[in-house]
Specification:
The structure is a single chain. The chain is of the alpha/beta class. It folds into 2 domains: about 5-90, NAD(P)-binding Rossmann-like Domain (Rossmann fold, 3-Layer(aba) Sandwich), CATH 3.40.50.720; about 95-130 and about 160-215 and about 225-260, Alpha-Beta Complex (UDP-galactose 4-epimerase, domain 1). The protein is built from 11 helices and 11 strands. It has helices at about 15-25, 60-65, 80-85, 100-105, 135-145, 150, 165-175, 190-195, 200-210, 230-235, 250, and strands at about 5-10, 35-40, 50-55, 70-75, 90-95, 95-100, 110, 115-120, 130, 155-160, 180-185. The strands form 4 sheets. The chain has a 4-stranded parallel sheet, sandwiched between helices. α1 (about 15-25) links the parallel β1 (about 5-10) and β2 (about 35-40). α1 (about 15-25) runs parallel beside α5.
C-alpha cells in the first residue's frame, strides 16, 4: 500500500486484534490508522497515533461516516455486505487457527498437560493450519505496508506459520513427555454431528479429519520472520501469554469422555 493509504479496523479489543492494531500502528503510514469502535467499547489499549471513529449498529449513518475517506477495511464478517454496498474495498484474511487455541487448550483434541491426543478421521495425515498471534500481527503489518489497495481488494489471503498433522503432534508430545501420549479416536461423522449442535471445536476436528481445514491457495509469506516450529510450541516457550482460553476444571477434563 501507499504510505498515504488509510486503513480502518473494526474490532480492536480482541485477544489477537490488540496485537494486530499495535503492529499496524507501528508502520510508517503518513495517515493515522483508524479504529471503528462501538459507542460502549473501550479504547484504552490504543496507541496515541491511532484515530478512533465511533459507530453503532443501530445508526447506519454512523458506519458510513466512520468509513469516510478509508481506502481499505479490515472487518468482521457481518459487515461484508454493508461494505460491498458502500463500494468500500476489503480483503479477507484466513489464519486457520491460533496455536494458542489448537495447542494450549484441549478443544481440538490436543492435550499437552495430560499428554494425550484425540485423532479424528484422517487427521493423522491431514494438516491443520496454524499461526501464532505474533505471526498474524506481523502478517497484517507486512501485507498492508507492501501491497497496494487495488492488489488486495476482493482477495481472500491466507497466513500460515506451520501446518502439522495430528500424527506430527503425537510425535512432538512423545518428545516432550519422554513417553508416548495416550491416544483416542473419533470419527468424522461423530464430529460432524456435534458440529451441528454449534460445537465449534467439533467443526474444527471434523475439518482436520476430512482434510478440509485450510487457508486457501493465496498465501502471504512474511519476509524475514522466523517461523516457530511445532517443537517450539510443544516443548519450548512459544505459546502466548495470556492464554487464548483460560484453563479451568471443565477445560482440563474436556477430553475425558474419549479416554474412558
Amino acid at each position: 500500500m501507499s504510505p498515504s493509504d488509510k486503513i480502518a479496523i473494526i474490532g480492536h479489543n480482541g485477544w489477537a486484534a490488540q496485537a494486530i492494531v499495535k503492529s499496524l500502528a507501528a508502520q510508517a503510514f503518513t495517515t493515522p490508522l483508524r479504529v471503528l469502535a462501538r459507542d460502549a467499547s473501550s479504547i484504552t489499549s490504543l496507541l496515541d497515533n491511532v484515530e478512533v471513529a465511533r459507530y453503532s449498529w443501530d445508526r447506519e449513518e454512523s458506519i458510513a461516516s466512520a468509513l469516510y475517506g478509508i481506502d481499505i477495511v479490515l472487518q468482521k464478517e457481518q459487515l461484508e455486505e454493508t461494505l460491498k454496498n458502500a463500494g468500500v474495498p476489503f480483503v479477507t484474511i484466513l489464519i486457520g487457527n491460533f496455536t494458542s487455541f489448537a495447542l494450549d487448550s484441549p478443544y481440538m483434541g490436543i492435550d499437552i498437560v495430560n499428554n494425550r491426543i484425540l485423532h479424528t478421521g484422517k487427521s493423522r495425515e491431514n494438516p491443520v493450519w496454524l499461526c501464532s498471534r505474533d505471526y498474524v500481527a506481523a502478517g497484517y503489518a507486512s501485507l498492508f505496508s507492501q501491497c497496494s489497495v487495488s492488489s488486495l481488494a476482493g482477495r481472500t489471503i491466507g497466513f500460515n506459520e506451520l501446518h502439522p498433522t495430528t500424527g506430527d503432534i503425537e510425535v512432538a508430545l512423545h518428545k516432550k513427555a519422554g513417553v508416548p501420549p495416550r491416544i483416542a479416536f473419533d470419527s468424522v461423522e461423530n464430529a460432524a454431528d456435534l458440529a451441528k449442535a454449534d460445537r465449534f471445536d467439533a467443526l474444527l476436528r471434523k475439518k482436520m479429519g476430512d482434510g478440509t481445514h485450510n487457508v486457501g491457495q493465496d498465501i502471504w509469506e512474511v519476509e524475514g520472520y522466523r517461523k516457530r516450529t511445532l517443537n517450539d510450541f510443544i516443548s519450548g516457550d512459544a505459546l502466548e501469554d495470556p492464554k487464548y482460553i483460560r484453563t479451568d476444571e471443565k477445560t482440563r477434563h474436556f477430553l475425558d469422555q474419549y479416554f474412558l
